[in-house]
């Protein structure tokens, strides 16, 4: 029986009733079929999950397949098909070293390739959905392979069809389309542009952009470090809220506001948390707000899942009381609830 705290970046989680390690697509499918109709939890890097102290009463499948297929065209760039178990940042590093551009602003995000489309991971002005062409999955409902085109993935901000139908589609591999080049797309994120000493809208070296992103993430405690408990987190615990234009007008001057295509407005969860009275370093038992970034809930070394959830509730209630906005978790909650 595996203790799941050994497989998560929060170092929290009880035992798994059944635990299976798989490293190939046939092994993944066999493990899923062997589980039958019982609950299944897929774990890759374990970096975006908070698992109950009582563990998981089902089958946990730890995916480590990292197959890679590539097709390169001088005009269209590279089409890369990557196994779901490949480490995300290792993949990003490899694309840059091979002369491909696009993923540099997504550097340093923990987890695996298979988790990327589920969450539609994003950072510094870009989302992974911009580069995905196909997602190959196993459909547990019909017990067959199902491949999704980009549009069929129904990507939204930190959301997808895979996240909206939890447990049904198991990601096996992801196909990306990347352009060849040494220069980034226009840098649209102010913080990153400042770090690169360029104006918003200008371009930069792909290599230098990655270095800047890694430095920014490191300063916020958003790079996993086994020796730094301030990085024992699941990354951003809450998503940035998207609110109506009317609600956006009630926010104080200085609150970040980014208009969306549907007429709503996205604002900053971190700004709301800080301005609701929650300070960095605030603790509840062994759970603590990161001393570097209020959006990360961390394990100071002895935290339980319940302590982390209680701290998350405190943060959520503080923002709700101050601004009337309910924060939604970005982290996958297993056996616990806000």
UniProtKB/TrEMBL annotation:
Places the protein is found: Cytoplasm
All residue ranges annotated as the FAD-binding PCMH-type domain in the record: 12-181
Primary subcellular site in the record, as a coarse category: cytoplasm
Reaction catalysis annotation: UDP-N-acetyl-alpha-D-muramate + NADP(+) = UDP-N-acetyl-3-O-(1-carboxyvinyl)-alpha-D-glucosamine + NADPH + H(+)
Pathway: Cell wall biogenesis; peptidoglycan biosynthesis
Group of enzyme by EC: oxidoreductase
EC code(s) of this entry: 1.3.1.98
Role summary: Cell wall formation.
Name recorded for this polypeptide: UDP-N-acetylmuramate dehydrogenase
Organism of this sequence: freshwater metagenome
Taxonomic placement: unclassified sequences, metagenomes, ecological metagenomes
